[in-house]
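Researcher: If only I could read backbone structure tokens as easily as an amino acid sequence. Walk me, if you will, through where the backbone shape changes along the chain. I have put the entry right below:
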Amino acid sequence: GGSSRGVAVLNGGTTTTTTSSDGGGVDSDALFQVSIAREVASIRDSAKKGQWQQALASLRSIEEHFDTRNKRANHSQQATMTHPSVHVYTAVMGACQKARRWSHTLSIFERMEDKHVELDTPAYTLVIGALGMRGRRRDAVKMLTRMRRRGVPADNMAYTAAILACDRIYNGEFAITVLRRMQENQLKPDTIVYNACIKAQERSENRWEAALALADEMRANGIKPNIRTYNTIISACRKSNAWEAALGVALRLGDYGVKADLVTINTLISTMGSAAKWQAALALLRSSQQRSMNPDVITYTSMIAAASRSGAWITALDVFREMKDTAIPPSSKAYEEVIEACDAAYQFEQAATLEKELLDSDLIYTYTGPQPGDMADDGILHAAAEQNDMLYDAHEQQQQQPARRSSFNVSHWGKFLGKGTEKEINEDRSDVRGAQQTPNGRPFAFFAVYDGHGGGSTAQWLKENLAVIIDTQWDVDEPKESVRLAFRSADAKILEPRGGILGIGAERGVGGSQCGSSAATAIMYRTKDTGVLNVLTANLGNSVVFLKPKNEQMVALTALHTPYNQTEFERIQALENPNPSIPLIRERGGRLRLGGSLSLTRAFGDAYLKPNYEIPVDEDDVRYPPTVDTRRNDPLREESIDNKIQKVSDFGLRADPDITVTEMKTNDEWLLLATNGLMVTAPGDSGLTPEQVEAIVEQNKAKTPNEVCAALASEARQNGSKDDITIIFVPLGPDSYR
């Protein structure tokens, strides 16, 4: 007369059903089932709320239950319950993914593999996404192959995740390869897939035509591109300096049945600004106002930047004031751009007023930076983070022997950027980025000055991209080597051919083959194990970084890469001259120059002085030219290159930085970065000596960092410097330069 009842366990192996009679109590199996069900419910609740740590804890608890149960089952006739179901693991992976904990997602995947859990399509999709965010594009794409071999169908979301993996490492060409594989497998890409592929083109250099072709393909396949599609294409045109193409896309939006939005206007204004077309940018701003599109902080900041980069300081100031009048609080980026415009036009009083206004506002523009392995979105304004206030730890003990620093405090940093009299435009750029909280081993402050030559395009590219590349490639175990590789990767991107028609007649280099830039960077981080504060400096060319300890002379943390540096001179002269009729180093205009042209021996860009290789690559390799020499007698040679690679030209110019790591002490007073317009770096230079720099800084100890920078620049001008001058001054103590 009794009946049976059962409770099934979520189990990836054998599902066990327990049975008891109506008259019996709840047996141990049923209690186990109830316990597991509660943990599963907790995981799902935590996943929905993004509480990844609680979800992980619940997963561990479930695994422990199963491990204990499995041991007991070995001595019974019941089937062994091997592991939780794939759905439990997927829920936890989803919680970690939502919290951007890519390494935890991959760790769970490894546990699933160890326990022989059969992955389904959603699980593989999460793994592909995590691999992509970690920059492991090849592994992400290989997961698609593994899915096919194991009989797990790959859907649109899985392919979208793989395409986004290509996006994350700037490989638009391979993203199209993944798209084609998807189509070969009889899957129909939708708007989401196409937009992901177009985004990968936007992230890559000079791929705007490929992005536009994908939109044409969408329409041909009956898939209507949306405004996000076209905004991404316009942004791709902006990054390739194809402003005419960007405008053409915008003008055809009506024909495509798509209405422009504020993002369209903002992207177009930024595009016009990059092309020094500030009048067109202003017309776009006025058009958006007439159409009641309600310009926002990005619109106004983009317009101010466009005017600033074109030297139209009056327009930049007028738009900045208009922004305030419309009750839109200016961002620190807006302040920075209008201050730079005033500085470049010698409107120092106006610039000082704006600097004071910025400091009094307590405005902080925080740059949190990409997570390890994650590439930060470029956006309209590149999230350039100038953080003016970081807390100073007033409890540091002063000792007779300077102690290690475990904390770093900047009351506020100062900057000066001034145009010289030798060039039509200011070719210098600077970049300051900071994060309020980063784990030990990760950078939390980034300072850089870039001294452009042959135009400001390379310096501008570095300002927008170098910090992101460094942060993305940063290795907590090998910071020096990761920065070295980041410099090489950046130079490889700069040297990529641009322009031409269908690839014919393309010129290498951002801004052209004769455009380049020196660089001096200072990166602050706490060591992974001890938390001790270090500053890592990396430089190319003759821009400088100095550190000043108390009661000691300031110390140069950078090397000068000029033909007057004996080590550099000997390195160049040891190379095989590809063109004996032109000496590798010769005097011109009263100073030694590389190829009789450039006064530097290491720099970003300057493709005409660097190796031009023909590189055989397979479809799965990034097509970057090597930045090291192929001959044994080059000290910078660190890898072998296939004999099939033919070098066309090379004068020995390199982008391999000199790198120092300095442990910071409690008696360090200040850090200074400057382009060579400030100081004498070679015979014939005008400017300040190191002793003069120290004296001027000391004389202005009661002044603000901005005033210190202005005083240094003023003295350099009086000493005859005609070059552009950029200075970043960072006080390291609590009591001075307020």
In short: The radius of gyration is 29 Å. DSSP finds 23 helices and 17 strands in the chain. Confidence is low (pLDDT under 50) at residues 1-26, 364-401, 500-504, 613-648.
